[in-house]
Amino acid sequence: MANKGFFDAALCIAAQAGDDDAAYFLSGDEYARFVWGPGGRCEGGHVEGRGWTAALLPSIPHTWLSNIDAACVFDQEELYLFQHNKYLVYSFDSRTTSAPGRICEITPFTTINAAVTTTEVGTGRSLAYLFSEGQVYTHDPKRPDLGELATIAETFPRLCGDFRRGIDSGVPTVDGATAYLFHGRYFVEVDFRDLHGSPQPYEAGGHSPLPVKTTWPGLLNPRPAAEGFPHKAASQPTPAALAAKPRALSG
Questions:
Q1: Closest Cα to residue 158, out of 191, 132, 118, 112?
Q2: What is d(CA 129, CA 151) in angstroms, rounded to the nearest whole number?
Q3: Per-residue model confidence (pLDDT) at position 119
Q4: Residue 81: what pLDDT?
Q5: Is 243 helix (H, G, I), strand (E, B) or coil?
Q6: In the chain, what is the straight-line distance between the N-terminal and C-terminal CA atoms, in Å?
Q7: Residue 248: pLDDT band by 50, 70, 90 thresholds?
Q8: Per-residue pLDDT tens digits for 98-129
Q9: Is residue 200 a contact partner of residue 147, using CB atoms and an 8 Å limit?
Q10: What are the C-alpha distances in Å from 225 to residues 17, 31, 247?
Q11: Confidence of residue 133 (pLDDT cuts 50, 70, 90)
Q12: Angular region, 166: left φ>0, alpha ψ -120 to 50, beta rest
């Protein structure tokens, strides 16, 4: 997709000691930290801190610290980053990265627009939904032979037309049961437990996708570079969850 919306990718991090559950929205080489509201929801949440991706992911090669297309985490151990036609895997245990591979080697796609992770009900498998234009691929890195390709409309039949044509970016909740998908200035919530989208915005009678600006306060504010903090310096310390192996991380 030529237009990635207001941000490129997002990660969701569970609370560490003295920290809060938060999502990190990446844009260019910068990030915004969004602290979840009550119950781990976007409602009641707020932006609390902005900084440079180099401070958020200090062990990632510098060429991967900007213009990330999508990101997701499997089993709280490996972070997958997608950039152009390649992907990179970072291990939280060893704090090392694999050599970049081509996206077409693990999916039917050449590029990934958005990615969200969840735990499959019944099997406990950690899965990623990888979006590319109007299609979505269900990927399990431990069982790549079980991947499934479908249209967004087939996988999430309650989504409206714009979202069926493509997802700009997405972020799961901390428990991985639901996720927020973004397209332009709007977002929707999907529930992975039934794979039919959230009953809240798509119950009988239907509801339109909600505007990002009013539900995610502060997220669409000017990028941090325009706010005057020094280049390559973070507006807050690097989260402990990213400095060491996290208790729970998904994206």
A1: 191
A2: 11
A3: 79
A4: 93
A5: helix
A6: 20
A7: very low
A8: 889 999 999 999 999 999 998 777 777 788 99
A9: no
A10: 29, 10, 31
A11: very high
A12: left
How far is the C-alpha of 245 from the C-alpha of 96, rounded, in Å?
12
Q: Give the mean model confidence (pLDDT) for residues 157-177.
A: 88
Q: Apex CA 239: angle with CA 238 and CA 245, to 5°? A: 115
Rounded Cα distance between 172 and 12, Å, is 7
**Strand ranges inside the chain, DSSP E:** 9-13, 22-27, 30-35, 46-52, 70-74, 78-83, 86-91, 96-97, 101-102, 114-119, 126-132, 135-139, 148-151, 169-172, 178-183, 186-191, 210-211, 249-250
Q: For the CA atoms of the chain, what is the radius of gyration? A: 17
Helix, strand, or coil here: 76? coil
Q: pLDDT per residue over 11-39, tens digit each?
A: 887 665 556 788 999 988 899 999 998 88
Which residues have a Cβ under 8 Å from the Cβ of 11 and sit 6 or more positions away?
Answer: 23, 24, 26, 71, 73, 79, 171, 249, 250, 251
Contact 166, 134 (CB under 8 A): yes
Look at the chain and count its residues.
251
Both tokens of residue 123?
Answer: 């099997």
pLDDT beyond 50 at 231:
no
> Quick one: tokens of 77?
């151990």
Give the pLDDT mean for 70-75: 83
Provide the token pair at 177: 């049961």
